[in-house]
Amino acid sequence: MALLIEQALNGVQLGFTLFLLAAGLTLIFGIMGVINLAHGSLFMIGAYAAALTAAKTGSFLIAFPVGLVCAAIAGMVIEFLVVRRLYARDHLDQVLATFGLILFFNQMTIILFGRQPLFVEIPSWLEGSIPIVAGVQYPLYRFVIILVGLLTAVGLYFLIARTRIGMLIRAGATNRDMVRALGVDIKLLYTIVFGLGAMLAGLAGIMTGPISAVQVGMGEHVLILTFVVIIIGGVGSIKGAFAGALIVGVVDTMMRAFLPALMRHLMASGSEADALAGGISAMGVYLLMAIVLLIKPKGLLPAHG
Amino acid sequence: MRLVKSFAAALVATCLAVPALAQAPVKIGLITTLSGPGGYLGEDSRDAFQLAVEMGGGKLGGVPVQVMVEDDALKPGQGKEIAERLMKNEKVKLFTGIIFSNVLAAVAPEVLDGDGVYVSSNAAPSNFAGKECHPNYFVLSWQNDTLHESAGQYATNLGFKKVFVLAPNYQAGKDAIAGFKRYFKGEIAGEIYTRLDQTDFAAEMAQIRAAKPDAVFQFHPGGLGIAFARQYQQAGLLSTIPMVVAAPSMDLGIMKALGEASVGVNVSSHWNSDLDNAANKEFVAAFQKKYNRLPSAYGAQAYDAALAIGAALKNAGGKVDDLKAFRTAMLKADFASVRGAFKFNNNQHPIQDWYALKVEKDASGNVVLVTKGKVLTNHADFYAKDCKL
Questions:
Q1: Residues B168, B256: one domain?
Q2: Which of B36, B174, B194 sits opposite A216 (nearest CB)?
Q3: Which of A250, A260, A296, B70 is least enclosed, having the fewest CB within 10 Å?
Q4: Domain containing B237: what range?
Q5: Distance between CA atoms of residues B35 and A102, nearest Å
Q6: pTM
């Protein structure tokens, strides 16, 4: 039972990391209609900025805002220089251009910081484990990731549902020409949304840094899962991204954790069962995506109807 | 008259060009992983190979060579395309450098079918060591399984009874677990195949903790290993459940990531920077001088591969054209390996010694791998018996 709770928490934690990435990506797609493959690069930029600052100052509390600001600025610069020219183009052009950005950022990072990965320590006040329920200890840092993810989700909800800029974002997503006709500076709005999305990706990067290593290409693996999240949740919908991320996080972790034992019960040969379970759990979220697409082609919680 | 003169000039030029052609350097295609999380492995491999060429003054075994470095980005398809391009456009016949077994599985057949030679400085999956061994495929590193056989033997020697094993779900991962189990005499507490693109191992850590093993054996090269080892440490397991691994799962990058926490990890390897032989001392000193860091085993293997290619070129008359002569020359292994004793088995994979290493803190406070003794002597791989060469 304790193991089940711990694994569920692991799933939720992975889910919240994915949510931070998916929220930005889906916002950008929903509002501007741009597929931004370079979202993984923004994840990497956030992680690098925080790691380098932490190495210089020794303080996670300084590194954290620096990472956020760098990712947001990088996002706005990308929007201003590159993505702005792509709004009217078709998706193939967008994919090509943003794929080019991935190559550019990866190579640039190699030139500036080399191929050796960077490491960020978990700050000492976030080390160790805390009791969740009787008998279950959970690493404090991973628990904090869950909390930050939750706070971000609530914050995003308020921003989009309750503020003027949120209203403009929603309006822009529904009918961008009408918003422009009403005299809103839609270009500025787009830049802000892109920066916000980039900041969320950067946040995910900063938090992932201490768990794994900060290295070139770290954003690409996680980007694939992020696309799965968006497709399951419904393209352009923040609520969908939230639901999709938690589903993908929990399903992925649970399959990895419990499928091998289950298969060993069902099959005679232990190592064949392990190999098969490994294979199925690797496919798990993609199977889930296929099933969701079959039943609800627009995703679980689509943005418009 | 002018016409005759030009013809004469052209004739002279052609005559001059013939010996120049014979002097043209032998092209070596070095395909390795330079981008992505595994990029620092390929970097070490490339740097060591180029160091050997540089130390020879642009020559290997006295034969001028031209090294063409290409990045496979850990993508088998990309590696194959590069090999095709180099063979077709540049007429390269000699290839080396691949780090990952899945890339090798795509590139090696391409090279061998085109009458090229592949000299592996790292990856050596089981399927190329047994029935499908090939006269023009040489391995200077190890056969994948033997790395982990040595770890299995080391775990047995250390007296562990119950070991939890983990490796990524691809050829080299399967070779790893098969190799470990072949030489580990105790009980397997659990067996998990992770993903080659996995970054979060929280679920695996929880399972290890629940299984309460004596020790953990894991094979996660490069970026995977860094993430795995750090999360193992963060889960509080590094201080409670000892780890026995083969060299690729505790390279310098991973040790740097763990810092002092890595002290005490048991590593089995065929090479270490402190091995006491003249060739190794020369290599380590030259590498440190040029690149200002210690070489890893990836580097040592690539350096040996360069020396072996040099020896083969020298004895085969400076060419790769005569494959038979090149092969005979290569199989003599007429070079001073940085590992000390080295010879080829019938399947053209190494027969070599394996050492027990431990991570320790040196006098200046750095974490280093220290050689503690031998695990296996003149060890050959399991698949050689199936090879009919």
A1: yes
A2: B36
A3: A296
A4: 145-269+354-386
A5: 12
A6: 0.81
pLDDT confidence tier of residue A264, bands split at 50, 70 and 90? confident
- Looking at the structure, tell me whether residues B313 and B242 fall in a common domain: no
Decide if B107 is inside a domain. yes
Instruction: Clarify whether residues B170 and B38 are in a common domain.
Output: no
Hey, which residues 240-269 in chain B have their CB within 8 Å of chain A? Answer: 253, 256-257
Total number of domains constituting chain B: 2
B365 and B262 in one domain?
Answer: yes
Residue B15 confidence (pLDDT): 47
Find the CB nearest B37 among A141, A218, A256: A218
Of A40, A63, A199, residue with least CA distance to A126: A63
Query: Hey, is the C-beta of B192 within 8 angstroms of any chain A C-beta?
Result: yes
Residue A222 to residue B199, Cβ atoms within 8 A: yes
For residue B2, being part of any structural domain is answered with no
Identify whether B349 is part of a domain.
no
Structure tokens at A39: 């979202």
pLDDT per position as a tens digit, B256-276: 888 888 888 999 999 999 999
Domain positions in chain A are 13-218
Closest chain B CA to residue A15: B200
Closest-CA residue of chain A to B211: A3
Q: Which residues of B touch A256 (CB under 8 A)?
A: 203-204
Nearest-10 crossing angle of helices A186-208, A39-57? 60
* Beta strand B367-379 pairing with B350-361: antiparallel
- Shared domain for B122 and B16, answered yes or no, is yes
Reported as a pLDDT band with limits 50, 70 and 90, residue B197 is confident
Identify the DSSP state of B196: T
Residue type, B152: G
Tell me, yes or no, whether B225 and B361 share the same domain: yes
Contact yes or no for A257 and B193 at CB 8 A:
no
Q: Is A274 within 8 Å of B40 when comparing Cβ atoms?
A: no
Determine contact, residues A26/A241, Cβ cutoff 8 Å. Answer: yes
